[in-house]
Amino acid sequence: MNKKMSVPILGELFTKLAPKIGAKVIIEPNWKIVGQIIFKNGRKRYWRYTSLDINTMGASEISKDKDYANFFMKKMGYPTIPGEAYYSKRWCKTIKSNRDINAAHSYAEKIGFPLIVKPNSGSQGANVAMVNNKKEFYSAIKKIFLSDNIALVQKFVKGHDYRIVVLDNKIISAYQRIPFNITGDGVSTVYKLITKKLKDFIILNRPSKLKINDLRIRQNLKLQNLNFNSIVEKNKKIILLNNANLSTGGESIDVTKIIHSDFKKIAINLTRDMGLRLCGVDLMVKGDISKTAKKYWVIEINSAPGLDHYIKTGPEQEKIVEDMYLKILKSIQR
After folding, report:
1. pTM for the whole thing?
2. Does the pLDDT at position 140 exceed 50?
3. How distant, in Å, are the alpha carbons of 139, 181, 261 from that of 216?
4. Cβ-proximal residues to 265 (8 Å cutoff; 6+ apart), any chain
5. Which residues constitute the domain of residue 98?
C-alpha cells in the first residue's frame, strides 16, 4: 500500500457529522482509510475506503462484479451495453475455459472497432480504454490482465455519461460526467495545456490518478492528428480520454434539479432491484437527461459511490454530500 495515496473523504465527513447525532468516530491513524462509528446506543458500524455498513454483502459483491451485475440487470430488462467477458491465460487454465485473449479478439472483430475494454472489477476508470484496432486491443487487454483475470469487451455506444446517486428510494444527486479534456489558447502546446490542467487538480486538492504519459491520451491525440507538440487553436476543446470518470480527470455538470422523472424512476428501481439502498447508477443517455427517457444504456452500478470529486465542485454539492452522509449515519445506527 502506498502512503502517498489519496485519502477518501469519508473519515473527514464522518468526523464532522457524527457529533450532530451524538456519535463518536475512530479512524485508524496510519492509513486513514478505515474507521469505526460508535453510536449513542452503543452500536458500532465500520467503513473502508468508500464502502460502509448500509448495503447487504451479497448485493454489494454482485455490484462489484460488472459481468455478474450485467447478467442480472439484463435479465430484469434493463438495457446494458452489449459485450462479453474473457479471461486471462492463468484463469482459463484454472477454470478450463477457451475464452482467452485470442477469443476476445475474435469477438472484437465480430462486433467491430472502435470498442471498449475494461476490467471486470475495480473502479474509477482504471484501465478502461477505447481501442480502434488489433494492436491497441491486445495492448489494452494485456494491461487489464496484469491486475484482473477477467476483461469485458463491449460495444462502443455514444451519448452523454451521467452518474445518479440513490439513497433509500430518493435521488440524492445527479451529474453529467465529461471526459478529461483541454481547451486550446492558440499559443500553448498540448503538452503544456495537459501539464497545467494536472497542476490545477493539485491546487484544487482534487485527487486524480491520471498521468500525462497515459497511453490512452497518446492514442486519442493520434486519432485527432495531434501530438504533444501540437498547438490547438483558441477555444477548441480536445477530448483526451473516452471514459468520463472524475477520478481520471473528468469534469461534472450538476443536473440534480433538472433530471427527468423517467430517469429518476429508472435509477431508483434499478437500485432496489439490485438489492441496494445506496447506489451510484451510471447511464449513457442518447439525448438529454432532462427529457423523457428514450435511448439509454446502463454502464454499470456502484454500491460504494465515491463522491470525493463531486464534493469539490462547489458549495451546493458539498451540502448535498454532507446531507446524504448525515442521513446514512442516522440510518445505520438503527
Report:
1. 0.89
2. yes
3. 11, 12, 36
4. none
5. 82-156
State the DSSP string of 115-143: EEEEESS--TTTT-EEE-SHHHHHHHHHH
pLDDT digits (tens, 9 = 90+) for 192-230: 999 999 888 887 777 667 888 888 899 899 989 999 999
CATH number of the domain enclosing 145: 3.30.1490.20
CA pair distance 114, 116, nearest whole angstrom: 7
Residues 175 and 193 both lie in one domain: no
Residue 283 lies in a domain: yes
C-alpha cell at 208: 486524480
Measured from the Cβ of residue 299, the count of other Cβ atoms closer than 10 Å reads 25
Check whether residue 263 and residue 326 sit in a common domain.
yes
Q: What is the DSSP string of 206-244?
A: ------TT-HHHHHHHHHTT--TT-BPPTT-EEE--SS-
255/291 same-domain check: yes
pLDDT tens digits, residue range 58-117? 999 999 999 999 999 999 999 999 999 999 999 999 999 999 999 999 999 999 999 999
Average pLDDT, the chain: 92
| Cα atoms in the Cβ-side hemisphere of radius 13 Å centred on 241 | 28
Residues 258 and 294 in one domain: yes
The count of domains in the chain is 3
- For residues 173 and 288, membership in a common domain is answered with yes
On whether both 191 and 138 belong to a single domain, the answer is no
DSSP assignment of 72-100: HHHHTT--BPPEEEEE-HHHHHHHT----
- Which grid coordinates belong to 276? 441496494
